[in-house]
Amino acid sequence: GELNTSEALKDKVVGVYFSAHWCPPCRSFTPELAKTYKLLTEEQSKNFEIVFVSSDNDESGFNEYYRTMPWLALPYADRDRKGALSKNFKVSGIPTLVILDPSGSIITKDGRSMVDGDPTGADFPWVPPAVKDVLGNSFVNKEGKTVTLEDLEGHHIAIYFSAHWCPPCRSFTPNLAKTYNKLKEKGVKFEIIFASSDKNEEGFKEYYGEMPWLAVPFADRERKQKLSQKFGVTGIPCLVILGPDLEVVNGNARNRVSSDPDAAEYPWGAKPLIDLDEDPSNINDYVSLLFIKGEGMDDGAAKAVMDKMTSSGEQYIEKAKASKDDQEFMFFYSNGASGKVTSSVLEAMENPASADKPMLVVLDIPEGGKYCVIECDMPTPDLVDSALADYKAGKLTMQQLC
């Protein structure tokens, strides 16, 4: 039967479990999660509840799958709330287990890994360790000597997740080394620490021989695994930039560094307005506003729109920093429809406007790949705020990307 949400979850740590019967990894994880849940709630009397949020294709699939679970569930028919939860927590794959404290604040979005690594719940409620604790205090340099974290005081630190067996990594590494050396020659306080995903120490040594920076000792597999988990690394190469205070400056600066070999934009922090065809890396994870210049638009008018988007982007960056939360919106521009990424986006639109026409587009790829072309003869600065306000108010007619 239906329960009152506030009463059922009052004073409890809550796991929001995004899963589906058709998903093999979900079906493997669910029984293990059930064991941990029963251990915590029945044997240890912890104030813990899980709410299943279904991605099943139909209600019969939901019913069949939910019968295997001992916890609560969002009613399958409430698809709007399911969509809102997926968007709020930026769920891009399943199974995903988001852990919330009793106030509703996020403890971790990686509850799955936490439970996998702690099936007895010894570390419940799985508060993630601080960056300093995961990073450790000692690293090796090219001479095999130890360098401590204290030696790097005042430095920006990049953690480079890479491996010799990975072709994109082998392409990126020499370019990264050139940029690193340029910064070092200028006396910039910057260091890179290699966190290897190589399959054995021999592969690590061969690959590290090409690098001029520090490394986590290959034998310390646990530290490398915890670093990957801490920074949500799901693919390589990945370059995480940390400030001198060890706060994350950029969760993956690979594309930024690739397009900035002279390090003019160092330390590659959040950019208020991004060239979509140079760096599309965030567009799948955030609601975005895209301005396509097209043809027939005065350069001054285009600049005014981009200046406004830059200003708005800076405001959302500062807001995210203050709240220590994800940025609400990302802002992208494109010089024209022929760009590699831009052309793919336009092709995915059903009956887009003329590819040559300037346009302003709201893209909501995290929510099932939706978009809305803002109706106007020509984009203007005032449409930037109004488009986002209309999106938040649910006033835009969002269409499905093909």
What does this structure look like?
There is one protein chain. The protein is 35% helix and 20% strand. With 402 residues, the protein is of the alpha/beta class. It is globular. A hairpin with a 5-residue loop joins β4 (96-100) and β5 (106-108). It starts with a helix and ends with a strand. The chain has 13 helices and 18 strands. The longest helix is centred in the last third of the chain and has 25 residues, at 299-323.
Report the biggest beta sheet as strand number plus sense, adding barrel if it closes: 6 strands, mixed
Characterize the quaternary organization of these chains.
Answer: single chain
Report the uncertain regions.
Answer: none
Percent of residues in helices:
25-40%
Residue fraction in strands: 15-25%
Shape: globular
Instruction: Output mean pLDDT.
Output: 93
Strand order of the largest sheet: 13-15-14-16-17-18
The gyration radius over C-alpha positions equals 23 Å
Question: Any descriptors?
Answer:
alpha/beta, 402 residues, 20% strand, six-stranded mixed sheet, five-stranded mixed sheet
Report a brief summary of the structure.
This protein has 402 residues and is of the alpha/beta class. The protein has 13 helices and 18 strands. Strands 13-15-14-16-17-18 form a six-stranded mixed β-sheet, covered by helices on one side. Strands 3-2-1-4-5 form a five-stranded mixed β-sheet, sandwiched between helices.
List the helices and strands and how they pair.
Elements: H1 5-9, E1 13-19, H2 24-43, E2 48-54, H3 59-66, E3 72-73, H4 79-88, E4 96-100, E5 106-108, H5 111-117, H6 131-135, E6 138-140, E7 146-148, E8 156-162, H7 167-185, E9 190-196, H8 201-208, E10 214-215, H9 221-230, E11 238-242, E12 248-250, H10 254-258, E13 274-275, E14 287-292, H11 299-323, E15 329-334, H12 340-348, E16 359-364, E17 370-373, H13 382-392, E18 399-400
Parallel strand pairs: 1-2, 2-3, 8-9, 9-10, 13-15, 14-15
Antiparallel strand pairs: 1-4, 4-5, 6-7, 8-11, 11-12, 14-16, 16-17, 17-18
